[in-house]
Specification:
Length: 159
């Protein structure tokens, strides 16, 4: 919940979400399904991408952690994820699922996303810095470019 709240707050997205899953097994399917549904919602909201900036990037710190995220709403789904930390349990959230959430988000929103934790020691700070960087780059990507009234592609289509 905390990471989704940070994502939507810093991306300036409105989100109301209710999810149920097989948590008695683990959170994998639920976290992945949330990424899938959120990605699909972003793709629908963005439509053909007319008038958006298309690209976004952001650096976000949280105490000792620094993260970078870069996005291209290209219609070419891809995730590059890099962290010097092996993300582990933070509260009830299994850190290993963080990358799975981002992958499901990128594949279903149909954008290229690069997320890197440049450095950090605290698991919570690392994940929060990364999700805020993702949020800020999405905010930039989907903001309206006043100079661009068309689809931001030399091909005339984002596929």
């Amino acid at each position: 919940d905390h990471l989704l709240t940070s994502l939507t707050k810093h991306a300036a997205f409105d989100l109301e979400l209710s999810a149920q899953g097989d948590l008695q097994v683990d959170g994998h399917h639920t976290v992945e399904d949330v990424g899938i549904v959120l990605g699909q919602a972003i793709a629908v909201a963005a439509g053909e991408g007319k008038g958006i900036h298309r690209f976004g990037f952001a650096y976000c710190p949280l105490d000792e952690a620094l993260a970078r995220a870069v996005v291209d709403f290209s219609g070419r789904p891809f995730l590059h994820f890099s962290s010097p930390l092996a993300l582990q349990q933070v509260g009830a959230f299994a850190g290993e699922l963080f990358e799975e959430f981002l992958r499901a988000l990128a594949m279903n929103a149909r954008f290229t996303l690069h997320v890197e934790l440049l450095y950090g020691r605290n698991q919570h700070h690392a994940m929060e810095a990364m999700i805020k960087a993702v949020a800020r780059c999405l905010r930039a990507c989907f903001s309206i470019d006043e100079r661009e009234g068309d689809i931001p592609s030399t091909k005339g289509v984002l596929v």
